Every structure is written in C-alpha cells, then in structure tokens.
C-alpha cells in the first residue's frame, strides 16, 4: 500500500465520516489513489480540475454531475467545493498538487477531508539515497510533517550544519528511534501549526529556534513544544539557527556534566567550531577561564576575540606543555574533548588533580593504546561522556528551560556580557553538498548555515 492509499484509509475511511474517496493528481490529470471499488472516470476527474480552474462560478450556479448523479452546490471557493443531493453529498478539497474527492451520506461529517488533505502538503528537504560523500546529497520533495501530540510545526527559515550531519550522511550515526531521517539538528523559523495537547506557550507566527533530533534541513519540521526557544528581537533567523545544537551542547557539557565553578580553567578543543565558540563565551559567563586549541592562527585569533585567555595550535606545538605553562603547572579543571583517541595522552598530561575530562566526540577515533587508567587514577581524574541527540525528552526540555532562563537573555542588546553566535558562511538549500564539503575541509570558523528558499511556503 502506497502513502497516498494509506492516507485515504487511515485518515478518512476509518473515521466512518465518508463513504469513498479518491485522489486526483492535478498535473497528471488522473486518479492516483482511491478506496476499494471507488472508480472515478477520467471525465469526472477532469471536470473536478476544471471546476476549480475554469468553471467555479458556473459550479456555484448550476451544480455538478459526478458519477452520473447530479449534485447541487452548497459552497464553492478556490480551496473546496461542497455538493449535495437527496442521497448524500460530495466534498472536493484542492491543494497545489492534489484534489481529494469524497462521497458521504446524511449524518456523516466530511470535514475530516480538510484535515486529511493537510497531510498531502509537500516540502523540500535534504535527502540521500545511500551513505557516502557529499555528492550523494540532493534536495527532494517529500511529505510535509504533521505535528503529533504536544508538537509544534515550524516553518524553517534557516538550519545550521553539525558534524553529526556528516556522520549520518556517511552511515555511521543514524537518528534515534522515532526521529526524522532528514538531516538537521537545529533550526530557526516561525510557528506554523500545532498538534493536539500543546500547552499554549506559542502562537502562530512566533519567531523560534529549535533543538532537534533530526529534520531541520527542510522547509518544515515538527518539534516537541518544550524544545523551542524564542528568538531575541534583534537577531536574524540565520544567527538564531547557529544557536540551538551548538550552544545547548556547550551549556550541557559545562553545567549539567562538568559542573563548572567560578575561577576554574577549561580547555576547549576545536575552539573555533560551533560548540567551541559557544563554550568560550559560556565559560566567561560562568566567570571561569577558557583556553583553546585550534589548527590555524586565524582560528586562534577569532577565539581570542571571543574571550579565550590563551590558544594553542595543535599542529605546530604540544598543547599539553603550553597548557601546563599557562596554568603554572597545575593543569586544567575541565577538558571539553571532541577529538578522542589521539589526544588522550596530552589530555592527561594537562588535566589537574580531580579534573574532569568530558568526551563528546571522537573525530580521531576511539582507540587508546597505553596505560590510561593508571594515569587517570593517579590524578583522581574522571572521564565523562555525553551525547545530546539521544537524550530523553524530559532531559532536553530541562536543558532548554535552563538555557532559556539563564543564558538566552545575554544574547539581547544591552546584556553584559553580550553573547553572540558566529556564522562562518551561509549556503542556499540546493548547495547542501558544497556546505558539507566546507565542513569536511575543516576551514570554517563558527557555524555553516543553510538557508531555505526565500519564497518557501511549502509544496502542497
């Protein structure tokens, strides 16, 4: 059973508010799905198409013949036509792509057709048919999502790229069970609809940014209500798209996992990444001291401008020796590590007694060769690991709430210190492959943002 056939059965027949239904593809001028035994002659399908595009006034005045029966017009506009005769009625609902026609008897409530047709709306989304390189990515028309219980539908204006997107594209980091398979862990846009059970925190048209488990690189995405944050008044959608995943990850690592304290020193690897740039500013906000590693002097300069107290080029110098010199031999209290295996020895060299080593990525792999545990034990150090995408809904809601209350106000004008996301570059949706190549080359300073088509209204 195809998706359209399933829609007719699940959204219409099982409600018992229509007798039969069919879907007509407007462009192809033919029936593409129908309930069992409901045959719509081609002539009738064409008449329904012409009724909307050519003969609407005539239909209002004279009614319509459908399957050799005459029906009087009760109501007709550019979106729907309602017809009746003594035996029952016909309701016809149009989208940009389909016409849904359904018959009903007295006592039935064919308004369910309007709800059903909403599920037919389409949108553009990033897609890949098989794992591999950036060349496998393309933009595809897919079904627009329908918000479920406690979910909000967001019309996406921009979405930012994350390393997780690259891993998913390669086939090594699948989305959590139940999450959208479309790439994109963060997005910014406007509220476009609600599922049942929403608590009324938002209204249609509100500017929001969202933490996602997937689905952000599309024209629409559904989001649990508690994952949304308001966009500050003086911030663009592009800037806002650079916040949710990166800043919530950094906030989680520092506060929920690392329990950062005033005056502590934090070593941030990949300091010019989205998470790194967020972490620098959040460490400063916590009245602690951020130091970073990065691979170019340009990146180190950018991190210094954002508040890094020191920065070391991991390609040209031993960062552990530099960190020990900076801390006068005491080492750092917290390490935020997205690199993994190849850094383990240097990380331990510069970790303080009772220090916390937090691993949230494995860019260099996860294998460790050497006496890790003995050296860690000698410093009474602790290793923490953390992923945000696979966390439970309640945890993410608590994280978003804490961030919204304690950090988000610092993005607004007049805040001191004022936080700011850093956008490296923007790419239109159809250049998604090029955006992935840019991230793989590791040249970006800050976030790479994907813009939705400017005239995006979703494809119905």
UniProtKB/TrEMBL annotation:
This protein's record includes keyword tRNA processing: no
Family assignment from sequence similarity: Belongs to the profilin family.
Keywords: Acetylation, NADP, Oxidoreductase
Domain named Enoyl reductase (ER): residues: 132-450
SMART domains noted in UniProt: PKS_ER (SM00829)
Pfam family, one: Profilin
Gene, per the UniProt record: TP53I3
Keyword Mitochondrion: no
Domain of life: Eukaryota
InterPro entries: ADH-like_C, ADH-like_N, ER, GroES-like_sf, NAD(P)-bd_dom_sf, PFN, PFN_euk, PFN_sf
Source organism phylogeny: Eukaryota, Metazoa, Chordata, Craniata, Vertebrata
Listed name of the protein: Quinone oxidoreductase PIG3
Organism: Apteryx mantelli (North Island brown kiwi)
